Amino acid sequence: MSRRYRPTNLPAPYLKRICLDKSSVPDPKAYPFSLPLFLPGFELSFDKAITIVVGENGAGKSTLLEGIAALAGYDDAGGGKGYMPVDHSGALEVSGGRLADALRASWLPKITTGWFFKAESFFTVARYLDRAAIEASGVPPDFLSHSHGEGFLRFFDERCDRQGIFIFDEPESALSPSRQVLFLRLLRRMERMGRCQVIMATHSPLLMAYPDARLLLLSKSGLEPVRVERTEHFRLLRDFCADPAAFVESELEGALGDGTPGQV
User: Fold this and answer.
1) What is the pTM of this model?
2) Which of 73, 158, 169, 180 could serve as 81's disulfide partner, Cβ 3.0–4.6 Å?
3) Quick one: residue 252, left, alpha or beta (phi over 0 = left, psi -120 to 50 = alpha)?
4) What secondary structure does DSSP assign to 215-234, as a single string?
5) In 10 A of CB 37, how many CB atoms?
């Protein structure tokens, strides 16, 4: 018989630490263990309710979040505990389960309620929830009648008062800049409640700038604390805002110089 979940009065964060167990890695040369992030000795501690990971594409941000989601009992393609909305027999490749098998976690206490948001699978998740609600009560929550961003905000607005661990993989993919501001307000609600742990990967300087979050830069050297002003994302956006036309012209000239995209 499975243990029934009981809320705790302890504040977030609940997931305190994860580390890689070298003895549980089947092949260090195979993905995802071949990523520089997961070199022997990998360890990540959580000391704030909101942790934000930034870095370039391919560094391993999504893979890391998939592994944490699997540790929490969520589907590593998106969803919550007990939800299996994504067809894993298709083209969608996830590696969180393989990574989670080699991770060791410290919890106080272990919280397995919450949600794992992935922009590319949210439509599938929303369709699953609409269908499940119809089967249960005959009345759908109707997330699909909204735009991607509106459906996303409505979905988490209804859940942000619940205790849990919430994992967001590039939520800005579903949100316009003004909707990103609304998402920041939603994060503030979650933080002030004190019962939500948030782990997020993003490319958005707006979201990176959330006050008092722990901001970590993921590079080939691993994870290290960073200020939003020191990220390449912020510097790029700052230069664009200073003179949009000159910035774009400069980048286009740089790309045309050798026939390849400019390095940013």
Assistant:
1) 0.86
2) 73
3) alpha
4) EEEEETTEEEE--GGGSHHH
5) 22
User: Of 194, 167, 156, nearest to 8 (Cα)?
Assistant: 194
Task: Give the sign of the dihedral formed by CA 12, CA 113, CA 203, CA 145.
Answer: negative
Q: What is the C-alpha to C-alpha distance for residues 44 and 169, in angstroms, rounded to an integer?
A: 17
pLDDT at residue 85 in the model: 54
Identify the band that residue 94 occupies on the pLDDT scale cut at 50, 70 and 90: low
Report the alpha-carbon distance of residue 118 to residue 167 in Å, rounded.
9
Q: What is the mean pLDDT of the chain?
A: 84
Measure the CA dihedral 193/196/199/205, to 10°: -20
Instruction: Give residue 41's pLDDT.
Output: 84
Domains, the chain, ordered by start: 15-229 (3.40.50), 231-264 (no CATH)
Confidence of residue 2 (pLDDT cuts 50, 70, 90): very low
The tokens for 227 are: 């200020």
Which residues have CB under 8 Å from 160's CB, separation 6+?
166, 186, 189, 190, 193, 196
